[in-house]
Design goal:
Length: about 325
């Protein structure tokens, strides 16, 4: 249970890693300062940015004593987040990337969720995907009440570290983010929690994060994505080999379905998407029917229709 925090101790520490974020960090910081839950400290870690990220962060803080800006040599987002955790004093630790934005009640809803359900160690909400300017909202991530290891590894419904809040005790138990990973280090951390502790990872049925998408986020390097995903799994396997082995087939099916949908979204030939969907079925057809059967059917429909429908219409009507 959460007990009232002393006046001098913040309830939340918000860790914000930032790199080349001068154009967006003001919006991110403003969304923290505008929270209805005010018992927080914000630690901005400027990860060796060559632009004016640190200057813009200080300007956005406008002298608010709850905000600290710390500069480090460039070491990557995992190391930046770990640096923020090491400097934190809050009993709940939240993360917001410097190009995303929170809903005003995000921290309050996480606070209530964690207070109401003591077994929950990690809390997350739903994410709305936006254009790069955060002006046009698109699809919203699904609500997941309780996250399983297989689903966490396979399709990562948390979506982004900006959607992650955890009790300090969880970090004390499993450690921080793996700085060796260059892909899905937040996903690996959540999987480690599920595989090695009894803490639950549970979702809130509310849109709490506005996430900026970009052209670079729709990379066509699906082979590279799989390579990074495998590295993430192997990192978790070191800590919990039996649990990973039990979840691997289901997780692999969900991940291959994701790659099939991504292949359609970026306009690759339908045979590429079909190959991924076929691999998904070989890993675990039950997983495709249990977790998002509508998504499986729409993916299959998209593969069939890609030769008929214009690509832009297909991406809007089927893949989203």
């Amino acid at each position: 249970m959460l007990t009232p925090a002393p006046q001098h101790q913040p309830l939340f520490t918000v860790v914000m890693p930032a790199y080349r974020a001068a154009a967006t960090i003001g919006t991110a910081i403003a969304s923290v300062l505008n929270q209805t839950e005010t018992r927080f400290e914000l630690i901005v870690i400027d990860d060796g940015s060559p632009d004016d990220t640190a200057t813009m962060a200080l300007a956005a803080a406008a002298g608010d004593k709850r905000v600290r800006v710390i500069r480090q040599e460039n070491a990557g987002p995992a190391t930046a987040r770990n640096h923020g955790i090491a400097r934190s004093t809050g009993r709940l630790i939240a993360f917001l990337d410097a190009d995303d934005r929170w809903a005003p009640d995000a921290l309050a809803l996480h606070r209530d969720h964690l207070k109401r359900v003591p077994p929950v160690g990690v809390s997350f909400g739903r994410v709305r995907f936006h254009d790069p300017a955060l002006t046009v909202g698109g699809r919203v991530s699904a609500h997941v009440r309780t996250l399983s290891l297989a689903r966490s590894i396979g399709e990562n419904p948390i979506c982004t570290t900006s959607n992650l809040v955890a009790r300090r005790e969880v970090f004390d138990r499993v450690g921080g983010f793996n700085p060796v990973l260059t892909h899905a280090e937040d996903q690996e951390w959540v999987a480690r929690v599920l595989a090695t502790t009894r803490w639950d990872v549970c979702g809130i049925d509310a849109v709490l994060v506005d996430y900026r998408t970009s052209v670079g986020g729709l990379s066509a390097d699906l082979a590279g994505m799989r390579q990074g995903w495998r590295a993430m799994i192997e990192s978790v396997r070191v800590h919990a080999p039996a649990q990973v082995a039990n979840a691997e087939a289901e997780a692999s099916a969900l991940f291959e379905r994701y790659l099939a949908r991504r292949a359609l979204r970026i306009g690759q030939p339908p045979v590429q998407a079909l190959c991924h969907l076929w691999k998904a079925m070989r890993h675990s057809p039950l997983a495709l029917l249990t977790h998002g059967p509508k998504r499986t059917l729409l993916t299959a429909a998209g593969i069939c229709a890609v030769a008929i429908l214009p690509p832009a219409l297909l991406r809007t009507a089927i893949v989203r």
